[in-house]
Amino acid sequence: MQTSEHFSEGSRHLRGRYAIAGVGETTYTRGSGLTTRALACWAIRSAMQDAGLAARDVDGVLAYQMGDSVSSPFVAGDLGIRPNFFMDVQGGGSSTEALVGLAMGAIEAGMCSTVVIYRAMNGYSQARVGGSGRVETPVSGDELHDGAYGWRSPGQRFAPTFMRHMYEFGTRPEQVAMVRVAHSKHASNNPKALHRRRVTVEDVLASRMICTPLHLLDCCIETDNATAIIVTSIERARALRRAPAVILGVVGRMCKPRPDMHFQHGPITTVAAKWAAPRLWSGAGVGPSDVDVTGSYDAFTFTTLLQLEDYGFCKKGEGGAYVASGAIELGGKRPNNTSGGHLCEGYTHGVSMVVENVRQLRHDADDSCPLGPDARRMHTYDYREGGCRQVRDVNVTANFGWGTPAYGSALVMSRDR
Q1: Exposure winner among 10, 200, 240, 284, fewest CB in 10 A?
Q2: The whole model's pTM is what?
């Protein structure tokens, strides 16, 4: 039988050979007034400027979309990029880290040398993911598996997993609400965040019920935005403008043994991370205890809790206690989603959390502290409202993408040595 250890052998020789050299984003708004094509160009141009690259220096383009966005050849042409390799992938939250791996593979295969990955979406003003009122859309294809049960929105699809976790392990709503509380504290120190107000557990539990057990403030926000990251070899990244975020390991679009009706395989409270974790940590050469900052997909408060469990940051069933302990807050043992994440900053299908962790590794995540004479941030590490959000001494970060309870992806990065 081929084990995760066997498969990770193929990724070990790539450890440390590639890096994220530039990141970019638009504003996070509700009503951008721009096309997804214009948003994509904005984010990619920002990423190229961040890295110090011109259009002629980028020869690979990867994009993903679900319901909107724009094809990569159109965007490449608008920016003056002539791709030697491009691909548009259909997918949502489990795409970002997987596309980082595909970019590495394309470069390794000699198809291109520098790849930009982007996601552009008018997720509030045009193609909205949330809500169950899309009755005019025919139920067909894969949706025949769950549409018959009324599972049309993500909240409806995921709720049985969340409810079962509460039943099996005694997880309480006030514990789960602490994910929103923590992320709101982080967003209050992020001028880019759409929702910057700090909330309390009482605020979360008092917000209206959307789909049991999810209150409104347990759910991510909807925004219009675009985000981009640039992947290249470590040698080339070191010659560019910014300190590289070194890629230690990646797994992409892993799934449970039965991903369509995943509860038929069981256990329903176990998510794809259980299968991704062994090859992630083996390939990256580090473990959960080595990670300083996490970026765990927070479409809902519960998705963060479940992934932190199955990637090994706490035991199964102890996620409620872990997130309620303060460990995931700035100043805690291992802060999570230091920009505010999808719950507070903006919804980007996962790219923004990779962007944030790249900045954490550069020790330049903060927007509030002043620049010193060497153009570096003079961090106060004062995490009170409106203050700093840079974590001290960040050396290793981990990102966890979520598609559904059955699909996931992950990425581990480090500071350059």
Answers
A1: 10
A2: 0.93
